[in-house]
Write a structure and sequence with these properties.
The chain is built from eight helices and four strands; from the N terminus they run αββαααβααααβ. By secondary structure, it is mainly α. It has a domain of 122 residues. Helix 1 packs across helix 7. One of its GO terms (molecular function) is guanyl-nucleotide exchange factor activity. InterPro entries: dDENN_dom, DENN_Domain_GEFs, Tripartite_DENN.
């Protein structure tokens, strides 16, 4: 699963290399708007006639991508590192499948570590039921739920959450690296 995701991560990093140099922050509105110059991006990469990439850039998913990843100051992740710092490595690996596979495995390992930051936590295995356990008749029925107690617990939880400070994420915001300009990207 992680290796397939790493392959797609590499694909999109290659596809959108240099996209940050075609972003423009427009501040005439109360809230700044991020605009992506599609024509400049396609022109500098020599892909004006590429129907697939044109359709990708015109899609709603790409508009969401730009609005999420466009701000110059936000928490960075593995995709940002690939687009900004791994351009030369990805270019060098295009003709060398073993190196490409090695890089995909490294990315998959990083994805795994991102999702499982505490590898020392062991998950308990649920034991398999013994033979004939389905024939037992002494299984207790599901207990009845006390509606009054459920309401009390809900009210207690609401009272606690209203008095508690809002939860904040621990994402460290940083300046997003721009990476190479679009002109340095290949059209492959």
């Amino acid at each position: 699963d992680k290796e397939v995701r790493a392959i797609f991560l590499r694909l999109f990093a290659q596809l959108f290399q240099g996209y940050r140099s075609c972003l423009q922050l427009i501040r005439i509105h109360a809230e700044p708007v991020i605009h992506f110059h599609k024509a400049a991006f396609l022109g500098k990469r020599g892909l004006i006639e590429n129907d697939f990439l044109t359709k990708v850039l015109n899609g709603m998913a790409f508009a969401g991508f730009v609005s999420e990843r466009g701000p110059p100051f936000r928490a960075c992740d593995l995709f940002d590192e690939l687009v900004a710092f791994e351009v030369e490595r990805i270019k060098a690996e295009e003709g060398n499948p073993p190196k490409m596979i090695k890089h995909v495995r490294e990315l998959a390992e990083q994805l795994f570590k991102n999702e499982n930051p505490n590898p020392h936590i062991a998950f308990q295995k649920v034991p398999r039921p013994t033979e004939g356990s389905h024939l037992r008749v002494h299984i207790l029925p599901f207990p009845r739920i006390n509606e009054c107690r459920v309401q009390e617990l809900l009210q207690e939880g609401l009272a606690r959450s209203q008095g508690a400070p809002p939860a904040t994420r621990g994402d460290k915001k940083c300046v997003v690296p721009a990476g190479p300009p679009v002109g340095m990207c290949t059209s492959s």
